[in-house]
């Protein structure tokens, strides 16, 4: 019986130890389950965060591609505007050169006209014009005198022809 009591006590102690072990294992299981639940929640949050970040990344890539395309179009427009500006500048340069050439021609014409009709030459030109006028007057007077002489000779010839025809009739 002693063995029986001792066996019973040993079994009761073993049962208490097993129960104590079971309680501690239950507590540990609960702790592990809580931890697993927290880890699952944490995992879900991180997956959601990852999806959000992936979406933001995709959106950023689309924005970046859009901006690159816009920059490319702007660069093309900028190059087109540069070409147009260069064309306009070239046209203006040509117009300026044409204007400068015309201006130089006008200056040269002005110099020539000034040398011909300048105030210094005016007295010489007036004298030259007066001399030409006097020469022309002299020439006109000489021609008038020659005409007068020819007219007188013509009258004389008419008279002679009339006199020659009148005695023959008589």
TrEMBL record:
Pfam families: SYCE1
Protein name from the UniProt record: Synaptonemal complex central element protein 1 isoform X2
Protein family per UniProt: Belongs to the SYCE family.
Domain of life of the organism encoding this protein: Eukaryota
Keyword Coiled coil carried by entry: yes
UniProt GO cellular component terms: synaptonemal complex
Keyword Coiled coil belongs to the record: yes
Assigned keywords, A-Z: Coiled coil, Meiosis
Organism for this UniProt entry: Xyrichtys novacula
Alphabetical GO biological process terms: synaptonemal complex assembly
Annotated InterPro entries: SYCE1
Coiled-coil portions: 8-98
